[in-house]
Amino acid sequence: MLEPVVDDLVGFLALGEKGRVAAARLIEMNPEGSPNLDEAPMLPFRPGTLRAFSVYEQHQIQSAKGLARRYLPGAAKVGLGFERITGKVFPKFRPVEMFYRHPLFYMGNPLACSPDGSLIPWPAYSKDLDFEIEMGAVVCQSVRPDALAEEAKEAIGGFLLLNDVSARDTQWDEYRNGIFGPIVKSKTFANVLATEVVTADEVWPHVDSLTGEVRVNGEVWSRPSTAGAHWSYDEMAAYCAAGEGLHPGEVLSAGTLPNGCGLELDRWLEPGDRLDLELELIGSVFGTVGRPGEYSS
Fold first, then answer.
1. Which residues, other chains included, contact 231 with Cβ-Cβ below 8 Å and sequence gap of 6+?
2. According to CATH, what is the number of the domain 41-55+96-292?
3. Considering only Cβ atoms within 10 Å of each terminal Cβ, which end of the chain, N or C, has fewer?
4. Which has more confidence, 32 or 170?
5. Which long-range contacts (CB under 8 A, 24 or more apart) does 12-19 make?
6. How does DSSP assign 119-156, residue by residue?
């Protein structure tokens, strides 16, 4: 049963329970594993597409405050003063109206994905590099156009952790002056993916209650959580499928977990920093931050 998918993780996930049983039996028969196993970090699969959502309202609000604080401090003071007086979120810090109508995403660059342990590239055009801890769902079966959420959910075969690397100063410039929004050169140059994928059956019961940890040079910067998503993974998948369907190998990231990036924390990476991101049950990704203009071969 497993021979056709020996080099195809997405195909293995599509086998569902039968595949997991066959794999467990194979492990029992070979408890020592493969003596010729290459342990060098590698991508578990090459994503067909990378659809990066943003479904956490708290992250959106805190990121808006972070951008204003970093690049428009006068306006930030006005907004924070409004919040102190009224006890309400400053309207300009809230997500756009469409955020509450349906899930929002942008198309990332699947060709810019590198495996756990890779050098975290710092584009020469940016001065403010940032990380984002995100959990992504792996589509392992085809989904028909306009499928309902329940049907789309069945196509999700696993979950993985990823670091969506971001150039914040470029994002700010694109947000204010570009015509395609803040997600062009600020977002598409690098994503670091975990080398492991956890089967969906293990994750669904805990999908909204997983706790993570962000460490920089061994210091804990934050402990984000998957709680509080405004949209579910099945709703995200159904929105993607509207009018076009979904295909095996696509990755749907829910976006940055609240308090899961330096922009929200007002803490910033430096070249040479060791970054570790972990999420219980899902896995971890790590890497060393490169110098501006330094890229792995």
1. 53, 55, 102, 103, 239
2. 3.90.850.10
3. C
4. 170
5. 13/138, 13/140, 13/157, 13/158, 13/197, 13/199, 13/200, 14/140, 14/141, 14/157, 14/248, 16/157, 17/201
6. -EEE-TT-S-EE-EEEEEEEE-S-B-TT--HHHHHTTE
* Domains of the chain, residue spans: 1-39, 41-55+96-292
Note whether 290 and 120 are within 8 A (CB): yes
> For 222-235, what is each residue's pLDDT tens digit?
999 999 999 999 99
The pLDDT tens digits for 56-75 are 999 999 999 999 999 999 99
Note whether 60 and 212 are within 8 A (CB). no
Q: How many Å apart are CA 8 and CA 161, to the nearest integer?
A: 19
Q: Are the C-beta atoms of residues 128 and 297 closer than 8 Å to each other? A: no
